[in-house]
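Entry 12.
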Amino acid sequence: MSFSYTLHPEADKEYAGAYAWYEDQSQGLGEKFIDAVKQKLAAIAAKPELFGSKSKGFRETIVSRAFPYSIVYKIAIEQKAIYIVSIYHSKRNPKKKYRK
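Predicted 3D structure (tokens):
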């Protein structure tokens, strides 16, 4: 059974900002980014423990080779829920990707 997921408001802003940036670079590239993120979110929802545990219970995975973003999340096993805390560009300060 698949888990549900929710995006932290800041993760939602990061997601929208990345989409806009890619779409500004090339029409349609933003849509490819959205598709890559959706595919990875579906994989996380299907098997949330598949991806590595990093710091203080956070897990993360790279969106794809084409897009240098990580999806950082926490799992609530009992609720069958995933909380996406960050969709984070790899060039930013890594200490800031772990939100509470």
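Annotation: The first strand starts at residue 4 and ends at 7. The chain has a mean pLDDT of 90.
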